[in-house]
Design brief:
Elements (H helix, E strand, L loop, with lengths): L3 H5 L8 H39 L4 H25 L2 H30 L8 H20 L4
Helix pairs in contact: 2-3, 4-5
């Protein structure tokens, strides 16, 4: 067979819906893996830099620069991530993040109230972050499994 169709289609571009979905999913997981590895590297670099600042080897502004770069990278990745997902994943993320935010607010204000009357120690930011991430993972998993 000869003609324009024979030369314009390439084997690298999937033509059926399932192959396109598989290619898109593989790209997404590769992108997420690269971002995860980069975040581990940046976290290790941040720890090393913090030690250098504590020892007096590096000035404090180096830590400020790294923190600014980390914040910019996080904002960029978040924007780029939400551009790559479809509207159903976006809805699942919105649902899970809303539950995590409300749950954390309930925990924080309850913890703070109990601290004010002397029952608990003051709210710990690390625990609040861990509670938020835990609620986020639980609610996102429940949403994906259809437990609404």
């Amino acid at each position: 067979m000869t003609g324009p169709d024979m030369h314009t289609q390439t084997a690298a571009v999937p033509t059926d819906g399932e192959a396109k979905l598989r290619t898109k999913r593989n790209r997404f997981w590769r992108y997420s893996t690269i971002a995860f590895v980069m975040s581990i590297f940046i976290g290790a670099l941040n720890g090393w830099l913090l030690d250098q600042v504590k020892d007096g080897t590096l000035p404090m502004f180096a830590l400020y620069i790294l923190l600014g770069m980390m914040a910019a990278a996080f904002v960029w990745f978040t924007r780029d991530y939400f551009r790559r997902i479809d509207e159903f994943d976006l809805l699942d993320n919105l649902w899970a993040n809303t539950i995590a935010l409300y749950g954390t607010m309930i925990v924080f204000f309850g913890w703070f109230a109990l601290h004010d009357v002397g029952v608990l120690r003051s709210p710990d930011p690390l625990w609040l972050v861990m509670i938020t991430v835990g609620l986020l993972l639980l609610s996102y998993t429940a949403r994906k499994l259809g437990w609404r």
